Amino acid sequence: MVITHHGGQCFKVTFGDLTLVFDPVSKNGTLPSVRFGADLALVSRNHPDMNGIEEVTYGDKVPFAITGPGEYERQGVVVQGFLSKSKYGLENGREEAVNTVYSVGLEDMTLVHLGALADEELSKEARESIGEIDVLFVPVGGDGVLSSAQAHELAVSLEPKIIIPMHWSGMGEPKSLEAFLKEAGNGSEKLDKLTLKKKDLAGREGSILVLTP
Q: pTM here?
């Protein structure tokens, strides 16, 4: 599979002929919107920075949209969504919003995208259902999501093979990525894209990979 970062919390995952996208940016978002076709679109938080399903409806691709908790299977991809909370981009008077944490099983690997998570811990249901995590996408930006310190603490507790920070490019507090990397203190690697096979995970324990948009 190949993973690329498109700013904010948006990641495109391609494997074979299939394309999956997490949190596509809509044309009404604060970030530049995306424009490519996807087969599956997963939306963690109903906000223009993350709900651009129309923007990934392109050419002959009309995505199967997943916008909340539940269990789904599409074209051999198994998705579980777990209820959590976000405080990102709240409308006046609201104290919190629904956020969905997604666990995706594909190519014998488990990807977990935490969305715009504000909770410092995952629910018991999520912890029990997800099992071993190969790739964890964690928001590190503060501003309604986990702070750098909270993000690091949660990421370490989940014991993923690879950690990919998000919510630092085009959103989040200034220098939040630097703060997260300082918190981690064990080095990181910057990549334009991540090409990953199951065998590449051998020996990795909490490796931090920064994907540049």
A: 0.97
